[in-house]
């Protein structure tokens, strides 16, 4: 009897492709950031604010990943970013081969920073290496401070957690300190920034999120 460990083989092949993407982009001096979150957390609006904050400092491209539709890519394009819409054909995540195809379609020759807006999902995207240099998870206030406890893997693999929609803290029962505690328990090295993509809080050039990106773009080590 022959037993094939298919999932293990798929992951290994994906890792090889992901490492190749990272190395090639590193040679070209480009930074790829994978953004994960639940649907409706504010990924696209966060990208729009970030593009505006980095205008004149970085050429930005965005890979918009969804099961269907193209509204997010159109929104990014209207907001001044270069974008390509990727349809995953029903799959709930991006993998490295999809990323590679997306980068080819985007043509990153005129990009310094590329964002990969992953499919809205807190489970599947965390399991697959996309080839990104950095992983970021957005946690929005309306989702609750218990999300890190319920979906630990996505926080464990993230370098940064953006806590978005802080303008709504007065409306929702969200405990900022408890959210940070839960994230740090899972991932002590995670950097946590508080933003509001609606009001623009946290997106000025002096704010930690924008300074973090500028630091990465200006030569901080990329894994």
Structure characterization notes:
- With about 220 residues, the protein is α/β, with parallel strands linked by helices.
- The chain is built from nine helices and seven strands, in the order H-E-H-E-H-E-H-E-H-E-H-H-E-H-E-H.
- It has helices at about 5-25, 45-55, 70-80, 95-105, 125, 145-150, 150-155, 175-185, 210-215; strands spanning about 30-35, 60-65, 80-85, 115, 135-140, 160-165, 190-195.
- The chain has a seven-stranded parallel beta sheet, sandwiched between helices.
- The radius of gyration is 17 Å and the shape is globular.
- The N and C termini lie far apart (about 40 Å).
User: Quick one: how many beta strands?
Assistant: 7
| Beginning-to-end CA distance, first to last residue | 41 Å
- Report Rg: 17 Å
Largest sheet: 7 strands, parallel
Overall 3D form: globular
Order of helices and strands: HEHEHEHEHEHHEHEH
Number of helices: 9
Helix and strand composition category: alpha/beta
Strand content: 15-25%
Q: Main sheet: which strands, in order across?
A: 3-2-4-1-5-6-7
Mean pLDDT over the full residue set: 91
Helix content: 25-40%
Low-confidence stretches: 1-6
């Amino acid at each position: 009897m022959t037993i094939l460990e298919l999932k293990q083989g798929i992951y290994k092949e994906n890792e090889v492709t992901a490492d190749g993407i990272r190395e090639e982009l590193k040679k070209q001096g480009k930074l790829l950031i994978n953004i994960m979150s639940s649907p409706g957390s504010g990924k696209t609006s966060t990208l729009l604010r970030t593009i505006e904050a980095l205008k004149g400092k970085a050429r930005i491209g965005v890979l918009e990943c969804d099961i269907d539709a193209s509204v997010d890519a159109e929104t990014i394009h209207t907001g001044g970013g270069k974008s390509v819409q990727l349809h995953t054909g029903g799959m709930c995540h991006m993998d490295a081969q999809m990323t590679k195809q997306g980068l080819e379609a985007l043509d990153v020759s005129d990009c310094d920073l590329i964002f990969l807006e992953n499919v809205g999902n807190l489970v599947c995207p965390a399991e697959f290496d996309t080839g990104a240099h950095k992983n970021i998870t957005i946690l929005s206030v309306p989702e609750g401070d218990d999300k890190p406890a319920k979906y630990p893997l996505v926080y464990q693999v993230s370098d940064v957690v953006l806590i978005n929609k802080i303008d709504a803290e007065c409306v929702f029962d969200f405990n900022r300190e408890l959210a940070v505690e839960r994230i740090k328990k899972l991932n002590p090295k995670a950097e946590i920034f508080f933003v509001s993509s609606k009001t623009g809080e946290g997106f000025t050039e002096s704010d930690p999120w924008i300074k973090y990106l500028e630091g990465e773009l200006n030569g901080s080590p990329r894994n």
